[in-house]
């Protein structure tokens, strides 16, 4: 168990650093005014999650430490959107298209609403 936590922590730290560097680079090369960095980490992270899961499946599901380090840790630190995208894709591929679409809508709406609620609570002095 401790070893697994170390894999996740190391990957998460690296993912967070890569996310920060992406934000610095996007701001420098693409300018402000549009959330290019967030878009980049979400799209790239989702692509990498798909490649990782496909590669692990091709290997017969082996590689738990790689999954923990790369999938949960690195990609989790880089973008949580990759995990959301994987959950959506798994539901869709199982044929649960209604559940997948509902999950996507609820995830986006609830997350945005929760962010606004947090902002409102802080403005109210909570």
How would you describe this protein?
- It is built from 5 helices and no strands.
- The protein has a domain of 78 residues.
- By secondary structure, the chain is an all-alpha fold.
- Helix 2 packs antiparallel against helix 3, helix 2 packs across helix 4 and helix 4 packs antiparallel against helix 5.
- The radius of gyration is 17 Å and the shape is globular.
Helix content: over 70%
* Biggest sheet overview: none
Distance between the termini: 37 Å
Q: From N to C, what is the helix and strand string?
A: HHHHH
What Rg do the Cα atoms give? 17 Å
Shape: globular
Number of helices: 5
Calculate the mean pLDDT score and round it: 91
What ranges have pLDDT less than 50 throughout 5 or more consecutive residues? none
What is this structure's SSE topology?
Elements: H1 2-30, H2 36-58, H3 64-78, H4 81-93, H5 97-123
Helix pairs in contact: 1-2, 1-3, 2-3, 2-4, 4-5
